[in-house]
Amino acid sequence: MTALLIFICLILITIVIVQIGKVTELASSIRGEEDAQMETNKWNGMLSVIFMVVFLGGCIWSSLYYKNWMLGFGPHQAASEHGGSIDFLFNITLFFTGIVFVITHIALFWFAWKYRGRRGRKADFIAHNDKLELVWTIIPAVVMALLVIGGLDAWNEIMADVGEDEEHIEIEATGVQFNWLLRYPGEDGRLGARNYKLITGLNPIGQDWTDVKNHDDFQPSELVLPVGKKVRVRIIARDVLHNFYLPHFRVKMDAVPGIPTYFVFTPTKTTEEYRKELSKYPEYQVPADPEDPEGPQKWEKFEYELACAELCGSGHFSMRRIVRIVSEEEYQEWLKQQSSYYLGNIRNGDEDPLKGRILEIEVKARAAEFGASLKEVLQAEDFSSKTLPLRYVNYETGSATLTADSRYELDQLAGALRENAALRISIEGHTDNVGDEAANQTLSLQRAEAVVQYLVTQGIPADRLTAEGFGSARPLSANDTEEGRAANRRTEFRVINK
Ligand SMILES: [Cu+2]
After folding, report:
1. Domain-ending residue, one of 314, 346, 378
2. 136 assigned to some structural domain
């Protein structure tokens, strides 16, 4: 608003000057040419000085008025390790160009007044002056060189890539009209391969599902990072130019289709800490929602943000994302809540090239699940009444032959038996009620025996294992639905002794 007023004033002053010029031109035809010319010179000189005072006064006033909006001043502090050096470079450049700006403008307008044309005065003619040329070439050259060298130095430092073994988090941001697709590496700490040819509606960044590194990658809707940890962001675009912009961290890098770029930065202040700093400034001590004066203040509602800084199309504005900087503990907590994109959206669907195969990540999850429930049973007082399902032990249809993928859970069980040398268990087979009961009884026993047999081949003494078959005598649920029957066809084990 104020800037607009100043602009309007400047335009009005210019119009007045032009009008006065026209009036004096008219007057010159009435009075003598030379008299009129002198009069014009005087007026132009005087107006130049007035303009200079108003203009420079306006500049100084507005820079003081907006000083809190400068990088590194007031509430506009950098929240990353390298941010300070960027702010310093901006401000030092502004400082030197500011000095030159003020001096040249004073000289320009003051000289226009001082050396205006007057009767009997003749202009000096200087053909050449080595000293003057040297001064006004060397001084700007030295200042420029210092600024450029300082800038390059800071840039090289900021763009230094992470070392091979350096601890860091690597994430990926893909710009797409109009969204940022964020990807985190999951537990293995490594992002999986991608290929634009694999992009589909379900696979928005073209992840290659045959690469196991992709299996635990997840795509969160907000950018959450721990404070004080180096972050390397892989930046790329899927359609047009975008720009990955984290203003508070002084991070800004083009996202270019086909050319991956990157940025490394270390956040230094959590969202909470930054809010606390903002709470000291009056401009943040106002209600966040003007309609609700009693509600939370602006600083309480502050969030870091990720924006697109390239005008990439009509939905450009919607590329804003919230960025949360949290403590290491909170970050680990958040990581636990995230789930693999592959397992949630692709696994065993039409686009899964690994359909029907057991994956390492699933084996791990099952092992963790099994370990937790076994521990619970072993710690229980009345352990002998507890049975544990062998959820992933399966047989070929109608037979007692174990399927190949059953071994993962059985290996886990064998491991537990090895660890607890006193542990004795009973393997119990159950079926649904379809078919002949006597046959079911036999089959359930044979299946339990197959499990015992497998455990024996794993080195578990046979006298620690018992096999029992119950046929359909102990259903878990009603046998009148397919789900019910599936739940009833099961193998369990019971702890006899520990
Ligand atoms: Cu964009």
Report:
1. 346
2. no
Classify residue 366: in a domain, yes or no: yes
47 & 193 share domain:
no
How crowded is the C-beta side of 469, counted as CA atoms within 13 Å? 20
Q: Are residues 210 and 70 in the same domain?
A: no
Q: Are residues 316 and 190 in the same domain?
A: yes
What is the pLDDT confidence band of residue 22, given thresholds at 50, 70 and 90? confident
What is the pLDDT averaged over residues 235-260?
91
Residue 66, domain extent: 2-119
Domain shared by 187 and 327, yes or no = yes
Residue 235 lies in a domain: yes
How many domains does the chain divide into?
3
Residue with tokens 């956040």: 267
| 68-78 pLDDT tens trace | 888 888 888 89
490-497 and 179-183: which strand pairing? Answer: unpaired
Rounded to a whole number, what is the distance in angstroms from the first to the last CA of the chain? Answer: 80
User: DSSP string covering 352-375, please?
Assistant: -TTTTPPPHHHHHHHHHHHHHHHH
How far is CA 154 from each of CA 11, 158, 159, rounded to the nearest angstrom?
40, 6, 9
CATH of the domain at 440: 3.30.1330.60
87 CA to centre of ligand 1 in angstroms: 25
Same domain, 183 and 258: yes
- What is the reported pTM? 0.69
Cα of 177 vs centre of ligand 1, distance in Å, is 6
Q: How far is the CA of 310 from the centre of ligand 1 (A)?
A: 5
Report CA(240)–ligand 1 centroid distance (Å): 8
CATH assignment at residue 268:
2.60.40.420
Domain identity same for 413 and 289? no
397 CA → ligand 1 middle, Å: 54
* Neighbouring residues of 67: CB distance < 8 A, sequence distance ≥ 6: 73, 74
Ligand 1 centroid distance, CA of 236 (Å): 11
Span 264-290, pLDDT tens digits: 999 999 999 999 999 888 888 888 888
Query: Measured in angstroms, how far is the CA atom of residue 34 from the centroid of ligand 1?
Result: 62
Q: In the prediction, which pLDDT does 470 show? A: 86
- pLDDT digits over 131-151, tens only? 989 998 999 899 899 989 988
Instruction: Give the number of other CB atoms < 10 A from CB of residue 202.
Output: 12
